[in-house]
Amino acid sequence: MSSKTLPLLFINLGGEMLYILDQRLRAQNIPPVKSEKVMNDIITTMFNKKFLEELFKLQELYSKKALRTVFDRLAHASIMRLNQASMDKLYDLMTMAFKYQVLLCPRPKDILLVSFNHMDAIKDFVKNSPGILSQIDDTYRKLIEMYTPLSSGEFQLIRQTLLIFFQDMHIRVSIFLKDKVQNSNGRFVLPTSGPVPHGTKIPGLIRMFSCTGEEISRLQFNNAGNYTGALREGSFESFGDRVTKLGTNMYSVSRPVETHMSGTSKNSAQHTKVNAAPNPLAKEELNLLARLMGGLEVQKPGNADSGFRINLFATDEEEEEALISRPDELSYGVIKIQATKDQQANAELAKIMGEFTESGDQSPSASSKGDDLLAMMDGL
Questions:
Q1: Helices assigned H by DSSP within 168-280
Q2: What crossing angle do the helices spanning 152-166 and 84-104 adopt, rounded to 10°?
């Protein structure tokens, strides 16, 4: 598992979230002033300096529930509100889109180009807000400093870590089904055509060499695909042509987006329920959330007219039906953490910590790690 995966996961999922919210704000005819405020508020929070400092620290990926909690807070960082069913659908679309992009990356290193595509689009969302642009430019620098020196092997480990994170997610998405890149069981179709990865040649030739390094024979074979030569390499700088279209906004063309629970996902949910067990990383996840969410403040609308609700379904009835029919295991129970100084917050955190206490003896190191959360809260 790579300890450098979390920033890429967060930025790409965040980019997909912004694509979807932008599409829904336009589809529901939300006034431009409110739409711009929502996008600006979320992006400002997403690229908060303190938040990014914690995000870019070397650390293992945390559970889907822990990450979902962060995105729940992020989606509500402005005057817009989503109910449980719409938030579930939003997260499904985000995760399946990025999973598709990771699977189709020609090279593991191209995951960074996908991230830059998301960053470029986010930058365009706030092109008229200089203050936010400076935060985004700083994130470009962090990405370049951390990832451009990595070897192909390190990028392969990052890709493997991401695929392990996504491996049990098989939500069917209408866009992917209509484009025939996803099967009815929720699994993606890997192409056997198109350009080969940069730096490689079209498969179909085996060359044999002698012990002195001299080529002695060639053997051709049928690659059973329709491959073409590699495209030029995309730009890994703050500006430039990324070449790959993975990570660009697939909602720019107006079309309905639906998600469906596949049979595989339902079975996975049942399997999860049967094998439910205390998470040994629960306390560490709380510490992560406390650190990350210190900069993620949920903004409460000032009056009844200023806030509004976004629906990711065609009608309210569809939204209610989706909430009822969705398995509880896939609705991601959200841990509410308020990172403030007051005693009430500390008492609430202590209660949450108590719920995660495991039976049996714990080593002193494990207990002390769990107590880090309250200690840090006291020090704020």
A1: 174-178, 263-274
A2: 140
Q: List CB contacts of 211: < 8 A, sequence separation 6 or more.
A: none
Q: Contact 123/46 with Cβ under 8 angstroms?
A: no
Query: How do the pLDDT tens digits run along the chain, 380 residues long?
Result: 899 999 999 999 999 999 999 999 998 888 999 999 999 999 999 999 988 999 999 999 878 888 898 899 899 888 888 888 889 999 999 999 999 999 999 999 999 999 999 999 999 999 988 889 999 999 999 999 999 999 999 999 999 999 999 998 999 998 899 999 999 999 999 999 999 999 999 999 999 999 999 999 999 999 988 999 999 999 999 999 999 999 999 988 655 555 565 544 444 444 444 344 445 555 556 566 656 655 555 555 555 446 767 777 666 666 666 666 666 555 554 444 444 445 555 565 566 666 655 444 444 444 443 344 344 434 44
Report field, pTM of the whole predicted structure over 0.70: yes
For residue 160, count CB atoms less than 10 angstroms from its CB and return exposed for 0-12, middle for 13-18, buried for 19 or more: middle
Spatial neighbors of 261 by CB under 8 A, at least 6 apart, are 171, 172, 325, 326, 327, 330
Query: Which stretch of DSSP H or E encloses residue 144?
Result: helix 130-147
80: β partners: 308
Cβ-proximal residues to 246 (8 Å cutoff; 6+ apart), any chain: 101, 104, 105, 110, 113, 114, 117
Instruction: Encode 83-94: b = buried (16+ Cβ within 10 Å), e = exposed.
Output: eebbbbbbbbbb
Angle formed at CA 92 by CA 320 and CA 312, multiple of 5 degrees: 45
Q: Dihedral through CA 19, CA 23, CA 28, CA 34, nearest 10?
A: 50
Are 71 and 94 in contact by the 8 Å Cβ rule? The answer is: yes
Integer Cα distance of 73 and 80 in angstroms: 12
Triad 47, 40, 22: Cα angle to 5°: 110
